[in-house]
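Friendly challenge for the regulars: who can give me the structure tokens for this chain first? No prize, just bragging rights.
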Amino acid sequence: MPKMIPEPFRIKVVEPIKLVPRPEREKLLVEVGYNPFLIRSEHIYIDLLTDSGTSAMSDRQWAGIMEGDEAYAGCRNFFHLDETIRDIFGFNYFVPTHQGRAAEKILFSIALRAGQYVTNNMHFDTTQANIEAVGGRPVNLVIDEGLDPTSRHPFKGNLDLDKLTSFIEEVGAENIPLGMITVTNNSGGGQPVSMENIRGLKDVLAGYDIPFFIDACRFAENAHFIKQREPGYADKTILEIANEMFSYADGCTMSAKKDGLVNIGGFLAMNDEELYQSACNQLILWEGFPTYGGLAGRDLEAIARGLREALDESYLAYRVGQIEYLVGRLLEAQVPVVEPPGGHAVYLDVRRFLPHVLQSQFPAQALAAQLYLEGGVRGVEMGSVMFAHRDSETGRMVYPDLELVRLAIPRRVYTQTHLDYVAETIIELYQRRDRIQGMEIVYEAPFLRHFTARFKPVS
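First reply, four minutes later:
Bragging rights claimed.
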């Protein structure tokens, strides 16, 4: 039996949860078109839809809420956050946004033209959608091991530098206004990126005069993996590792709803003053004045405190330990998952879980719906619904290499008993997996369809 370390905190406030009866869960699934996104949270027992904005804040963060300065311009909390971002990320300028996708929207609106490319290890859904919304083309260049759920490579989130160089030579550096890397690689199983790879990526991009941005949502978890797995970093602090990671970049986008340990907020940071001025102009149009963006002063204070709390090594050991524990329980029962355990979520490998369901029948969506029906557990599809697309030249559907259901663990929210319940629910479902049938779409939106799409079982 896998072991889990005790929580490095005490619980002060609790929120009741309720398991609604199975007949009611079945009725709810039909009403929402078998899309767990559309189920009201009060009808969810264990909610693993996302780790974004679902963290439990600390007593220090709640104390900071009471120190919010709600002045329209120049609130003191902005300058506290500015100091924190300089200490951790090292960039000269930043603009606060209401969440990470707003930072992406601003960056791509000012840096990207239609027809240009943005490279990454693997773009997440909102990043990809914001690139496409301005006519750009997202390109994924993760290493081959990152597409093999059974590979135990310690840094499966790495970007393939040879593929990157070949791609730049093929399309021309002038058609790539910026390159990115996502830490950790959410779309590929929450897998980390090594410092060696980040350093090498900077060298390649700098050689072609291409700016380098990091999608920094889970930077602290990535730094933890570098400390644990990469030679030469065992004796460095998480802050020192984070400082080095960002020293190679020209800027970053950040959803503070992940490793900022808050329920709302994000930012766009950079070193280029001209880019900063352009970002401020867009921020004022879409978000707000540059010293508050899309946030209240109290939110800025909670982010400033949460970013520092995320660097705590005992917290990170527990945080990653939760994922290791749940993965271990599932592997004991031979449930197919992405290995090795990542930083923020457990990923069920649906191709091996439901080999009898075609990708055109959305097997990960079918499994996510069944997971709710079986135990009131909500996960999220990360496969053919989220990432399949129609080739603009051939008209053929292009399906993703990975077909996953992600079970994202909110930070400081669920205990070992909750994880045991999740493991038992999945194991029971796996034992009768042959009964699960595919789905077909009855409604979809043009962008980010997985949020609102509706389905029905394949007849």
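The mean pLDDT is 96. The first helix runs from residue 22 to 31. Your move, everyone else.
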